[in-house]
Design goal:
Elements (H helix, E strand, L loop, with lengths): L3 H13 L17 E6 L14 H4 L8 E2 L2 E2 L17 H14 L3 E6 L8 H17 L3 E7 L2 H7 L8 H15 L8 E2 L2 E7 L6 H10 L5 E5 L8 E3 L9 H10 L4 E3 L1 E2 L3 E2 L2 H4 L7 E2 L5 H12 L4 E4 L20 H12 L14 H11 L4 H14 L3 H8 L3
Parallel strand pairs: 1-4, 1-14, 4-5, 5-7, 7-8, 8-9, 9-10, 11-14
Antiparallel strand pairs: 2-3, 6-7, 12-13
Keywords: Golgi apparatus, Hydrolase, Membrane, Signal, Signal-anchor, Transmembrane, Transmembrane helix
GO molecular function: alpha-mannosidase activity
Membrane topology: Single-pass type II membrane protein
């Protein structure tokens, strides 16, 4: 067990290193932008769980069926680690270490609230596990609240229409009590950052009432357009309209106090093939040019926060998580650009990006409890950016 004094030292180092906060001084040198990957905690798979979840199957695919060495999952692409459960601690560790070595500061977690309807309870459990790992590995995180949960709760008879504003306010108050105060939570101008995805839950006026009633002020960002009570808005891909929507967002955002631009690798969903609904459209990968150009455009805005959409939405094909098709390419792009800008906090190379996956494989193959201490030490070394030492331990030296 870590003593209280040691925890205080760790937290102090975390804050002083620039993590978890973004200072607001207009006369200061532009700060290093906080780069966050939008993270989906919704995957369910054996052996962590006793079944395959909808996001791997969409009621049309069977991951147990393997064709040409490819599990049949609801995606055009294959995770390099294989289909996984978002509640698996070793996979979460691997994901966060990959981000850290690439120069990604943390995650914006897609969160559906506290109610036990549909798979929301599983998503909340997995989010808690992700946040635990983020704290352990000294990574940042923020929450994106799914606005459509309000509509889903109304449809399920779990919420009265007159209670909608109070319900969302109570969810935010819970976040303030449990997660906003953690050392790794992203803050902007001393306020915790909160995003909301979608437009179907509360109206503009209702969001204003909601934010006025919460116990703690937040730096609130709405999707695409800045709501009246919002600090700004965050951009998001709209495949049916192509890449022009991002230029329009950049133009609109000039009038706002803050904006969160989006970095997009591609968009190729599986919905039509799964017979969920028609495809939303397509954004071509263009051999990586889409990702590189959107990253440059985001950086040119000189924002305090940048969001990558996404780390792992396999169903929509927007993931930058290593895949069989693209390997580590997108992470290598991020790492190289952050190094060029003097923003890479870990002294990692492109070869070092392979170390978290090797750690995951060794954890999965471990048969004796005494191996855990060595593997935990490797994770600590990677989190500290000591890749050479971690590599030696992984190789059994």
């Amino acid at each position: 067990m870590v003593h209280a004094r040691a925890w205080l030292v760790l937290i102090a180092a975390f804050v002083l290193s620039g993590r978890g906060v973004a200072d607001d001084d207009p006369d200061a040198t532009p700060t290093r932008p906080v780069l966050l990957a939008h993270y989906m905690p919704w995957y369910v798979a054996p052996p962590v769980s006793d079944r395959w979840g909808w996001h791997w199957t969409m009621n049309a695919f069977d991951p147990e069926q393997v064709v040409d060495d490819r599990p049949q999952i609801a995606s055009h692409f294959q995770p390099l680690v294989g289909p996984y459960d978002s509640g698996g601690p070793h996979v979460l560790e691997c994901h966060l270490l990959l981000m850290k070595l690439a120069g990604i500061d943390g995650v914006i977690v897609d969160w559906y609230g506290l109610e036990d309807v549909h798979d929301y309870a599983v998503l909340h459990r997995n989010t808690r596990r992700l946040i635990e790992q983020a704290g352990r590995l000294r990574m940042q995180f923020a929450i994106c609240y799914e606005d459509r949960t309000v509509s889903a709760l109304l449809k399920a008879g779990r919420l009265d229409a007159a209670e909608r504003v109070a319900h969302v306010a109570s969810e935010i108050d819970w976040l303030a009590q449990h997660w906003f105060t953690l050392p790794g939570y992203v803050h902007l101008d001393d306020r915790p950052v909160l995003l909301s995805f979608g437009q179907t839950g509360l109206t503009d006026a209702e969001w204003a009432d909601c934010l006025e009633s919460v116990d703690r002020p937040v730096a609130y960002f709405s999707q695409h357009h800045r709501r009246t009570a919002a600090t700004g808005a965050f951009d998001w891909p709209v495949p049916a309209k192509g890449l022009d929507v991002h230029a329009a967002f950049r133009e609109r955002s000039r009038q706002w106090p803050h904006a969160i631009p989006v970095v997009v690798p591609r968009f190729r969903d599986i919905y039509a093939e799964a017979k969920v609904h028609a495809s939303w459209g397509r954004i071509d990968d263009a051999d990586g040019r889409t990702f590189r150009s959107s990253l440059e455009q985001a950086l040119e805005m000189k924002p305090r926060l940048i969001q990558i959409a996404t780390w792992n939405d396999w169903g929509e094909g927007t993931m930058i998580e290593p895949s069989r098709e693209f390997g580590y390419r997108d992470l290598e792009v991020v790492q190289k650009r952050r190094r060029e800008r003097g923003e890479l906090q870990a002294t990692a190379t492109t070869d070092d990006l392979r170390l978290p996956l090797e750690l995951l494989r060794q954890r999965q193959a471990a048969e004796h409890p005494e191996e855990t201490a060595r593997l935990d030490r490797i994770a600590e070394l990677l989190a500290a950016g000591r890749c050479r030492d971690a590599r030696r331990l992984l190789e059994g030296q």
